[in-house]
Write a structure and sequence with these properties.
about 250 residues, mainly alpha, about 0% strand, globular, TSUP, Probable membrane transporter protein, transmembrane, membrane
């Protein structure tokens, strides 16, 4: 499939916006996955191709967080184990459904995630974490998030926010550090499964990744306050509404 210059530019630009949003908030895949479908990729191929950008975006974010002195490698690895198991199952499941069902699930997931992004977050306390804080219920939640992320990925950051905010009651800065690391670890086997089944278009994925890595790097550098987070969420929801209408109207 040939790609025009304008389409390549759109992939880089939207990738940059998505990478920035993904690191500071959530919902970047709500922009990139429909974009890949609009450019002519079948839903399952778009789903696999989008993973290339997510992996490289996460590499950039994890590296930048470590250079900034923010890292929870040990605890993140513990939480990644059930997420990896879930993601492999979710990726396998995604390749079993029809394109029509996948599109219906995508629209539903975007609608639910849009509402979830607007819900108020609980009051949190900044405190050091240890392995004793990781309960069996949290590990089970990580498995569930892994299944969803392996299947679709759209809005998975919102699930991380809900789980880590509400179960660990840690602040947004800590949530983002955990989030990008766990996504990187569980996304690798999921991407491998899509590659094995021929559901990745590398040209599209790598162009998307160029933008998303730049956006992720910039997001780590930005000291995002509550007002900033709010406008990103509202901007994302506005774009999502447009995408849902576009999908519904064909």
């Amino acid at each position: 499939m040939d790609m025009t210059f304008q389409e390549g530019l759109a992939l880089v630009a939207i990738g940059g916006v998505a990478g920035f949003i993904n690191v500071l908030s959530a919902g970047g895949s709500m922009l990139t996955l429909p974009l890949l479908m609009f450019l002519g990729l079948p839903p399952q191929v778009a789903n696999g191709t989008n993973r290339v950008s997510i992996v490289l975006q996460s590499v950039a974010a994890v590296g930048s967080f470590r250079r900034e002195g923010a890292s929870h490698v040990g605890l993140s690895l513990r939480l990644s184990v059930p997420a990896v198991a879930g993601s492999v199952f979710g990726a396998w499941l995604a390749m079993q459904v029809s394109d029509t069902l996948f599109e219906a699930i995508l629209i539903s997931a975007m609608a639910v995630a849009s509402v979830a992004m607007l819900l108020p977050q609980p009051r949190v306390d900044t405190r050091p974490l240890s392995s004793q804080d990781l309960s069996p219920a949290l590990y089970l939640a990580m498995f569930g998030i892994g299944v969803y992320g392996g299947f679709l990925q759209v809005g998975v950051g919102i699930l991380f926010m809900a789980v880590l905010y509400r179960m660990l009651r840690i602040d947004l800065a800590q949530v983002n550090v955990f989030k990008v690391f766990i996504i990187l670890v569980y996304m690798l086997p999921a991407l491998g499964l899509f590659v094995y089944h021929g559901h990745v278009r590398w040209g599209y994925g790598l162009l998307l990744a160029v933008g998303s890595m730049a956006g992720a790097w910039l997001a780590v550098k930005v000291n995002m306050g509550p007002r900033g987070a709010a406008w990103i969420k509202w901007l994302t929801v506005a774009v999502i509404v447009t995408i849902i209408l576009r999908l519904l109207l064909g």
